[in-house]
Design brief:
One of its GO terms (molecular function) is GTPase activator activity. By secondary structure, the protein is mainly alpha-helical. The protein has one domain: Ypt/Rab-GAP domain of gyp1p, domain 3 (Cyclin A, domain 1), CATH 1.10.472. It is built from eight helices and no strands. The protein is globular and about 35 Å long. The relative contact order is 0.14. About 7% of the residues have low confidence.
Length: 137
């Protein structure tokens, strides 16, 4: 959890613990786990910082109502590897938006990824748990 502060320290942006490294790592994991989503986003040049910067920096605090944010944070804090589970939460959202990502254009996809409050947080956490168990344990 302490590494979250590194996202807010400008001179660490390009360091291994900085925000750019975290976004790059998320993109690499996405490429490995769901190449179809990754390729669709690459094809339209929708870079991961466009949709994941706010998710990672604010740990979804701006995306959901406080009750849902507390559920997300509780699940994050209960995992032994906070950062990897945060990536899994991000990936779960992308997976839940897969149909939009594969069928829509840049602006529709961006809108869909910036307006995720309609997603079921329990389902996001459940998918993230499955991803974590499959790829990080």
């Amino acid at each position: 959890m302490a590494e979250c502060k590194d996202c807010f320290i400008k001179y660490l942006d390009k360091a291994d613990t900085g925000i750019l490294a975290k976004i790059k790592q998320l993109n690499l994991i996405l490429q490995r786990i769901d190449n179809q989503i990754w390729q669709a986003l690459e094809n339209i040049k929708l870079h991961p910082q466009f949709y994941s910067l706010r998710w990672i920096m604010l740990i979804f605090a701006q995306e959901f109502e406080i009750f849902d944010v507390v559920r997300i944070w509780d699940s994050l804090l209960s995992h032994c590897n906070f950062q990897d589970f945060l990536y899994c939460l991000c990936l779960a959202i992308l997976i839940l938006r897969k149909e939009v990502i594969l069928q829509q254009d840049f602006s529709d996809i961006m809108e869909s990824l910036q307006r995720i409050q309609d997603l079921d947080v329990v389902e996001i956490i459940s998918i993230a748990d499955q991803l974590y168990k499959q790829y990080f344990e």
